[in-house]
Amino acid sequence: MNNTAVKIHEQQRPSSRPHTRKQRKLRIRFTLGEKLLFLSFCLFVLYTAVHMVSNQVKIYQTNKEIQKLEEAIQEQQKQNRDLYVEVQQLSTYERILQKAKELGLSLNENNVKVVQE
């Protein structure tokens, strides 16, 4: 057989296995600009997340301080009410008269002046 006959013969011979295409993996290549854009987006998201968390921490601390101040205000108001009640009790007419007698003072009705507010 000469060379040409072998080539024709090989072309006509059916192949034993089906002819399949090799599937290439589709490889996506990003340009430098796309990579930079993606990197800047990731950095922006990271910065935003950190900024949001830090703001929440500041808000939490401020609320905590406000609650402490409100507690202190309520405690001071309670003390003020208690002292007001004590002042009212100590400034009764009977108590003042009793203290005056203990100190040796006497009540002279002619010397009493009424002051109105």
Automatic annotation (TrEMBL):
It is a single-pass type II membrane protein. Keywords: Cell cycle, Cell division, Cell membrane, Coiled coil, Membrane, Transmembrane, Transmembrane helix. It is found in: Cell membrane. It comes from the Bacteria. The chain crosses the membrane at residues 36-54. One of its GO terms (biological process) is FtsZ-dependent cytokinesis. The keyword Transmembrane helix applies. Its main location: membrane. InterPro entries: Cell_div_FtsL, FtsL/DivIC. Residues 59-86 form a coiled coil. Residues 1-23 are annotated as: Disordered. GO terms for cellular component: cell division site; plasma membrane. Belongs to the FtsL family. This is Cell division protein FtsL. It comes from Saccharococcus thermophilus.
